[in-house]
Amino acid sequence: MSYKERPVTDLVSKHNVPYGTEKEGAKLSHPKALYMLFFTEMWERFSYYGMRALLTLYLISEISKGGLGWNSADAGQLYGLYTGLVYVTPLLGGYLADKYLGFRSAVLIGGSLMALGHASLAIESMPFFYAGLGLLILGNGLFKPNISSMVGQLYPEGSKLKDSAYTIFYMGINLGAFLGSLICGWLGETVGWHYGFGAAGIGMCLGLVQFYLGRRKLGKIGLKPEKVDKSVAQKPKEPLTKVERDRLTVIFTLSFFSILFWLAFEQAGSSMNIFAYKYTDRTIDFLNFEVPATWFQSVNAFFIFTLAPVFSMLWVKLSKRNIDPDGPYKFAIGLLLLSLGFAVLVFGSLSIPKGAETAGVSMLWLVFAYLLHTMGELCLSPVGLSFVNKLSPIRLVGVMFGVWFFASAIGNYIGGALAGMIDEMAQTQSMSTFFMIFVGIAAAAAFILFLLSKRLVKLMHGIH
Fold first, then answer.
1. For residues 419 and 344, what is the distance between their CA atoms, to the nearest angstrom?
2. Cα angle at 101 between 180 and 176, to 5 degrees?
3. 44-98: pLDDT as tens digits
4. DSSP 370-401
């Protein structure tokens, strides 16, 4: 979840000004606006991941238990469509904010739409259910890219605080994801699904209110853009150089492999969620407590907290010794770790007989799989975002980030469709066979990318 959403490009918009300047010798400190944005993002991610943890389980849960009673195939299709569109609409939302609305208005409108979306999901009615999903998709498109953009604009170009600011902001993403999965998940599974959706809505409202009350801390940042005089002659666009074309080839290649990564990784909210719900022994005997299936959605965020600093230090140390792997190799390592995570689930589900509708597999298999998946994410996602920023010509940075996130959208949609096969394959073949699909996809992608990496490094023309 986390690093995929971490903004790496933070170019200052021509319509806004940075928070201030840093005088030599002055004590460096973050503006108060950063913490306002931190909590806004934390509550929004609380609502998003809290709702996401519930969605698939609500769809497949029996009607007698308050769910919709869908089969896994239909649930997977809807889940994939929803999570895919969530990564498409920010392209439009970013454009509208930059050209017409301004970042502040876009965040307020987007947050309001999402609050209404969660409120709709809290109502037990199918028309309200679909309306809620639509509002969440549209709201996310306006909210997500524009709050991220304002973080970078708090600082002047070259600021020593900018990387630290994004690290703080990124922790807000994971804190919200961690708490949302725990709180909304527990309410949804133990009290009622719509109470969980309602709790997600309350979180969104808290974020929206505190952003509205604290918006003046942003100074001039995020205001409605000034109109540009179209009569002013524009410079003709220069054609791409060979080096630029080569680097764009690398971006498109890595984006393709990111599709293969995310279609497997995003099983977390769909098939792996179903596996936790139906086939995992979630009882802690000495506490006489059953762990809600949705709580496993917080494991990724927990491992991000603990492992991200380790990976950051690892890359720095390897770089000092001139043995830091180039981006394409890190991508391949990430895919390999993802494959190993699903291999863990293959072994863990061997004890489930064909045709079984429930089972009692140890929770440790899921936790270990999430550990490997998170390690894979840390090798691939931040590297991908960074290299899109580094390899893109300045005039195409926004477009290429659009390509990157569109690849994520494709991966999410395909992943949802594949997740829908879990029940059918569990009945006709075995659960292990289902997870072998993702072992094969990720391992084959890793192998092919290892073979291509040397060539891709050459096409990067010195970018590391």
1. 17
2. 10
3. 999 999 999 999 999 999 999 899 999 999 999 999 999 999 989 988 888 888 8
4. HHHHHHHHHHHHHHHHHHHHHHS-GGGHHHHH
Q: Which CATH superfamily is domain 1-14+30-225 in?
A: MFS general substrate transporter like domains (1.20.1250.20)
Residue whose C-alpha is closest to residue 373's, from 291, 439, 275, 316: 439
Q: Determine contact, residues 218/33, Cβ cutoff 8 Å.
A: yes
In this chain, the answer to whether the domains covering 1-14+30-225 and 241-464 adopt an identical fold is yes
pTM, full prediction = 0.86
Domain 241-464 falls under CATH 2.102.10.10: no
Domain ranges of the chain: 1-14+30-225, 241-464
> Would you place residue 21 in the very low, low, confident or very high pLDDT band (cuts 50, 70, 90)?
very low
How do residues 125-172 score in pLDDT, each as one tens digit? 999 999 999 999 999 999 988 887 788 788 876 677 776 777 788 788
Contact between 452 and 328 (Cβ < 8 Å) = yes
Both tokens assigned to 251: 């971006």
414 φ, ψ to 5°? -65, -40
